[in-house]
Design brief:
With 205 residues, this protein is mainly alpha-helical. The protein contains ten helices and no strands.
Length: 205
């Protein structure tokens, strides 16, 4: 029998999934709290037990998604460098036709004052950048990555590539060639980041 916390977590997950489906179908401006709760078959009042507003709901949706992707950095079945590659690749926007509208909605929301205030109150820096930097520092401390690597430079470069692709999709309302983008990303890892795991070789930027 499920505990009260498990039931509560399941309800929250059901509400988030219902909202995710609606955000993938139409513009966020045309989605109400009533629409979300009707989608998951729950009462409107229950929404406010988990989220203060629709903006808070979308913020939670985005944060949960990033937290899930960040788990790839701790996938011990992969070598350290491959974990970083996996995380950065997963962090590229899902540009499949069925996720295109969802991506545009979440990117538009990330430009709002509400979302910016939320991020500034919870994180000192970009969420993805913070995860990548912590991972770099951990690997350097363990002697897995070279201390010669300009960790902040590489971390910011990876983050800005991801963000650039995301905003391109949101602003120009068209789907880029995701296969080509991932290919470029992999070339970047293969040709440049190989130096990370070679402590005896000094990286020249």
């Amino acid at each position: 029998m499920a505990t009260r916390k498990e039931q509560s977590d399941a309800t929250r997950a059901a509400i988030l999934e219902a909202g995710r489906k609606l955000l993938a179908e139409r513009d966020v401006k045309h989605i109400s709290i009533s629409d979300i709760m009707k989608q998951c078959g729950l009462s409107n009042g229950l929404f406010y037990h988990y989220f203060a507003s629709k903006d808070a709901f979308i913020t939670a949706l985005i944060s949960d998604e990033w937290s899930e992707k960040a788990q790839s950095l701790y996938d011990t079945s992969l070598p350290p460098l491959e974990r970083l590659r996996k995380y950065c690749t997963l962090s590229l926007p899902d540009m499949s036709p069925e996720s295109f509208q969802l991506h545009r909605n979440t990117m538009a929301f990330k430009l709002t004052d509400e979302y910016i205030r939320e991020r500034e109150s919870r994180y000192a820096d970009d969420y993805m950048f913070k995860h990548v930097m912590l991972y770099f520092e951990s690997c350097i401390s363990d002697g897995v990555f070279s201390a010669d690597v300009p960790a902040e430079f590489v971390a910011r470069l990876l983050v800005y590539v991801n963000h650039g692709v995301s905003f391109h999709v949101a602003l120009y309302k068209r789907q880029p060639d995701v296969t080509q983008i991932i290919s470029w990303f992999n070339q970047f890892f293969d040709l440049s980041l190989i130096h990370i795991s070679e402590p005896t070789r000094r990286v020249v930027i």
